[in-house]
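Q: I'm teaching a short session on how sequence maps to structure, and I want students to see two examples side by side rather than one. Could you give me a first protein with its sequence written out and its structure tokens following it? Keep the formatting plain so it prints cleanly on a handout.
A: Of course. Example one:
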Amino acid sequence: MRIFTCIVPLLVAAMLSSVAAAQKAEQKADQKGAAKPPTVSRAILKPLMAAQEASKKEQWAECVAKIKEVEAFPSRTPYDNYVSNDILGFCALRAGDTPLALQAWSQVTDTEFSDPARSATLRKGLLQMSYQVKDYAKAVDYGRRLIADGSTDEAVHLLTIQSYYLQNDFKAAEKMAADYVAATESRAQTPPDMALQLYTSSCIKQEDDACTLRALEKQAQYSPKKETWPNLSLLLFRSSTEANTLNIFRLSREMGGMTRGEEFTEMAQLAIEKGLPGEAQATLEEGQSKGLYTNKSTQELAIRLLGTAKAQAAADKPTLLKQDGEAAGKKNGEVDLRIATAFMSYGDYDKAVAAFERGLAKGNARNPEEAKLNLGISQIKAGKNEAAAATLASVQGDETLKRLARLWTQRTR
């Protein structure tokens, strides 16, 4: 684990110098006549030094035994306990006795003798060790304290979130993961993949579709998995109205979320119903090229739909330029938008962009937000990414359309 490799060198240095530093400080104070810093009692100095020597020789069991001798002294001071527990924590950890190391170091952090930086270092070690021994509640305590004190350390956040998750406190894990992802974004950094996975899994465990949608959107943005887009598409279909079905299909097809032949035939059928045979034909041919029509009924349906789409496209496409010219002279922008959608369906994106912009400028659009979404898509396909990003950012109103716009924005980067 990364925490261990970062923490141990710091603990080594601190432990080895704890007694020596105290003695030097005492000598300097004597020379200057200043108030003496705390020092270990002379009665326990011999076993402490022996423990320290054993640690230098990596004789960990001997080190632990010598510290145990210290515990036999009845009149130990708080500082004696601080130094002996500090050394005991290190030697116990090296000896493989993590519970003993936890017990010892938990009595060192937050004492009056441990400065804030030292306490933070110890707390990170205690967080990891608590996680390793599956004391997740204690790990959460240490993690939350570090975060409250301003730690932005990735490992601290991830171990704390995981500790919540492993206690089945999925709501707390979700909130902390979401907050950490947002904080990372605010620093213009990419959220770690593990945080995104914990965020998504915590939402799924709660059977909360809205939460899962938010988490999958972040995962799709930063670290998509093979299953991200199919799952995201499924939830978009489930949460949206029928009016947005084709819009969701378009995004899913673009991002690789469609993996079954039935999805391609369903999208094509919907496109034909909406008078977009060019889009239907392209969709069916893509499914065909991917070899997704694997059963007889799907194959037959795809062949029948493809024949319909080709026939309609052959009759429709040659008339588009004439229709476009006529639409340009009319006051109703809705006509321009229908022509623009047709151009988009045939892959003529420059003409689609011009017609969309013209129609939106005229007004009278039945669904201007959907038109802006399709304008943004057409601008992406026409290679006008900067304009597309601005257009997609302007989509308002319907939550599904706004989410689709945000997801399409990935194609502008």
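Q: Perfect. Now a second example for contrast.
A: Example two:
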Amino acid sequence: MTSHLPTPADFAPPPVPADLARWAAADDAARPTRLARLRERMAAEGVDAYFGVRPENSRYLTGFRFGDGEEKVAGNSGRFLVGGDEVVVLADSRYTIQAGREAPGARIVPVTYDLAAGWADLTASVGARRVAVEAGFVSHAAWTALEAAAPDVELVPVEGWVEADRAVKEPAEVERIRAACAVADRALATLLPEIRAGVTEAELAWRLEVLMRTGGAEGLAFDVACLAGPEAALPHGSPGDRPVLEGAVLLFDFGARVDGYRSDMTRTLFVGEPSARDLAVYDLVARAQAASIGAVEAAAAAGLTPDGRSLDAAARDVIEAAGHGDHFGHGTGHGIGLATHELPSLSRVAPKTPLPSPTVFSVEPGVYLEGETGVRIEDLVLFDPAARRAERLTAFPRDVLVIG
């Protein structure tokens, strides 16, 4: 337990325009290499083109980017086709100017909400007879329509090609994740004096969002979770009009987005004197997280690359040994970058293959007692065994913090 509460000055300041310019230049320089890796995979798999629909993949490979939730109303705009010699970005009249600015290396092709109407011409324009398609993000109806529109073009369902590349983080990507972590760290430190018994979850969640948006974030990584007392037992609960309770836990799960890249952290605080039960649960979760991060650090120091399943087991074994295995149902961690949840996975069903590297992932064990309490502690970790490096990017303290 600590009597010193963190302050905003404890954390790095927000990015400045020079940072944004440097990151944009880094992306421009990296994009040809990213495309070359995809084309190598295309050649190895015997396909002529790659059709992408995920906004994160579009930004990674073409530079075209959407704002918060824009993909929900964009229709087919932002989707892209990588051929052997060129990249095509689809854009309707709302996005043609933007696409021309953000994806200057691509050919911009007009599109309507009826993708199938132009599919035959689009695939013919890049000489494609076999097209890899991000099948997990295309509906059955759309797939059938594309097949009917160009019967001589074979659609090949693929999954995880670009995502696997995105899991390996470039230095400029790590910088942005680190900056997003600092924005979130400072926001929570700024909020601490406002937390007291009686204020509602919704009020605190809104204030935390405002502090991130005015403190260097272009947006949120996801909606803020603020859960008091028994509600903290809901791993993905939503804040409501419930008041913060004296002597109970207060769980925050939140993240900032900086130049497209995201942070994700969870802190469980105590409002007033904590109960012995809650302190015991907190200590257990802290030890479980330390076990998993310790395994990451040991592997990095030795230049070894573990798999995500073993890192999950390191945390899970601690919780199961304390008799709370049934109260920890989710995975220990997930990759993060342009998406909040991406590769790699740290879970009971994660692949038994070495983690990508360098990469960034969360470590977030939790224990949830229905109707009583819940504790989760989450940090982002940079793992780079080639550099013998494992580093927590989340700097906010993990000690027991009593506030209010």
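Q: What should students look for in example two?
A: Point them to this: The mean pLDDT is 97. Also worth mentioning: Residues 8-14+168-403 form a domain with the Creatine Amidinohydrolase fold (CATH 3.90.230.10).
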